[in-house]
Automatic annotation (TrEMBL), chains A, B:
GO molecular function, one term: transcription cis-regulatory region binding
The entry's keywords: DNA-binding, Transcription, Transcription regulation
Entry keyword annotation includes Transcription: yes
Start and end residues of each HTH lacI-type domain: 11-65
One Pfam assignment: LacI
Superkingdom assignment: Bacteria
Coiled coil feature spans: none
Protein name: DNA-binding LacI/PurR family transcriptional regulator
Length: 342, 342
DNA sequence: GCGGTCGATGATAACGTTTTCCCCACCCGA
DNA sequence: TCGGGTGGGGAAAACGTTATCATCGACCGC
């Protein structure tokens, strides 16, 4: 309120320089190590920095140097298991490379919502972007992303399908493996409760279908659930009424938990009457009774690999090879051989 | 490589101005709406912007205007249920206010790891910070955060304990409520499998203790688990051997799932022999058999309230009132009256 | 002892935007 | 017709840092 200083302006490089009795660029050199500085001057500068509690202004730094240290993650959600763990993997990689990570969730898959989101992301000084391709919103974001910004797609596909860098978990292979495993137990076919449709089918569903097809098994209609356990429960109720179902592959562990519960509530024995398998291997599923057979997907690793890919992109590598991890089947107690239904 | 242009420099305001035949500030005015511009000029400018695909440079913008639109979340994790949902709530609020959110995870609670993290966060042009106080790392981060940056603490406390703005879930009340409920069923006391220690005890544990104390019940030793279901399982095995336990409150749903499974595996009936209660109300817990009684905590709402608090702080409000939500007890089938243990 | 290289430092430009200040043309009322 | 307000727009300063270039001394080899 007085004439001189209002809210005690944050100290800047010039303040440090004056106190240390050196020039502004010298202070900068101490901070960035871009050029050697004599030990004595360095000490004076550091002392001055500590004294006034100086912190570099990131905006100014980025503006002039053009170096960007922000990686933005675009995603349709952050709370679900896969999203959250992928995000953690990315954050961990970024931390190691001393980069920052921003997260923007897309409200819906409406075209204008997507472009609005992208605009908001690209106004920031981002070095690159990682899009989580787990749902329609992610898919739409990839389409709408300008080709000029370094972009990595993290998702569940099996091969690169466009001009970007990809880090993937081969969900298709996972779906195939678990379906084949169920068939090998003697099931004539495997029914499938999928998550929300992505427009095109998800890798999990594709793998399931491929395995049935190559085994010459009948391909039942896909049952579409939301990601909620409740929704799985509702389908489980339906399934319990049918006599033709002996094996169910669910699009996620949460759905499987619901299906499992519904079956047991209806007096269906698992796995004696019906086998149930999930997808993801969330920590709790081995505590279900019976412990859930599922497909383990290492999302944390997926996040780490996406960040690696982006780092290479930023380092100037032209063609970053697509990195694909294969999920692994975890056999527990919810699946077993076919028996005569009591 | 040629003499003129290397990688086709990104278009800047000057380019737009030249094409539209106006001055640089005029383009800025169109973009920010800081001053009225004639309709005709505005149209020319917009056309030019679209034509060359201009995007404002956020760094330059922040540097000169001093307006910051970045909210940074500091957290010990992002993957666990509470963290992930709180983060989503924050992201949602930020999106509505068209601000950006950054996320930084602290590797450990080591003092230098914490200050390193904070340094990294504060180099960015942050408007404010939200610290997730769910673990030691978060606690340490709050201590080390300079008082000059607008900070909101999001956590599980019951009242403000320092000079910051707080958004809380009153875990203490939740712990008290569920414990009292169990006592009201006739249990002489309630045992407690807590999550990792936070140094000081967590609100959940405090509430449990307070309820026992005020009921004059014996206060058993706390059993400390990790957040892993497996760890809960191990404690469940121990508990099954004991004859004096009739009710167990767990520090999280995942721990409860483990305890539950161990008890059932050992032939202990739930809730007939032992009642089990969890904490959080993750979606899957109603699918456990028996469905888990637990304390519901709305983390998404916590995130939204933290962002609100920060927004007010940034709007210049001096004293932002602490916002406290009370968790609600969800009674399902895993808890019941005491019976003679068979 | 002298030209040349090197190491340390300072002066100045540059980054891309917003802000401030000023000018000009126009309109209105007296 | 003239003065004062007003609304649109341009010129230049400012933001805080790094990059570029110049300077100055010391040191080295011949």
């Amino acid at each position: 309120m007085a004439t001189t200083s209002r809210t005690k302006r944050a100290p800047v490089l010039g303040d440090v320089a004056r106190i240390a009795g050196v020039s502004v660029p010298t202070v900068s050199r101490v901070l960035t190590g871009s050029k050697p500085v004599s030990a004595e001057v360095e000490q004076r500068v550091r002392r001055a920095i500590d004294k006034i509690g100086y912190r570099p202004n990131g905006a100014a730094r980025m503006l002039v140097s053009g170096r960007r240290s922000l990686v933005s993650v675009i995603s349709g959600s952050t709370a679900s298991y896969g999203y959250a763990n992928t995000l953690e993997g990315i954050a961990h990689g970024a931390r190691t490379a001393s980069m920052d990570v921003g997260i923007t969730v897309i409200d819906s898959a409406e075209p204008d919502a997507v472009t609005a989101t992208i605009d908001q992301v690209l106004v920031q000084p981002v070095a690159g972007v990682i899009v989580l391709e787990f749902d329609r919103a992610g898919l739409a974001a990839i389409e709408a992303m300008p080709s000029t910004v370094p972009t990595v797609v993290a998702g569940g596909g099996s091969r690169r399908t466009g001009p970007r860098a990809y880090a993937l978990i081969d969900e298709r292979a996972g779906g195939r493996e678990v379906t084949s495993y169920l068939l090998s137990l003697g099931h004539k076919t495997v029914h499938h409760v999928a998550g929300p449709t992505m427009g095109k089918h998800s890798g999990r569903t594709e793998g399931w279908r491929a395995a049935l097809k190559s085994a010459g098994a009948k391909i039942p209609d896909v049952m579409h659930a939301t990601w909620e356990p409740r929704s799985g429960y509702d389908w489980g109720k339906q399934i319990a009424k049918r006599r033709d179902v002996t094996a169910v592959l669910c699009g996620s562990d949460d759905i499987a938990a619901g299906v499992l519960r519904a079956l047991l509530d209806c007096g269906v024995r698992v796995p004696e009457d019906i086998s149930v398998a999930g997808f993801d291997d969330q920590p709790y599923v081995e505590m279900l009774r019976p412990a859930l057979t599922t497909v383990r997907q290492d999302f944390h690793d997926l996040g780490a690999r996406s960040f690696d890919a982006l780092a290479r992109l930023l380092a100037g590598v032209r063609e970053v090879p697509t990195s694909v991890a294969t999920p692994s089947l975890v056999i527990r107690d919810s699946t077993g051989p076919v028996r005569a239904r009591r």
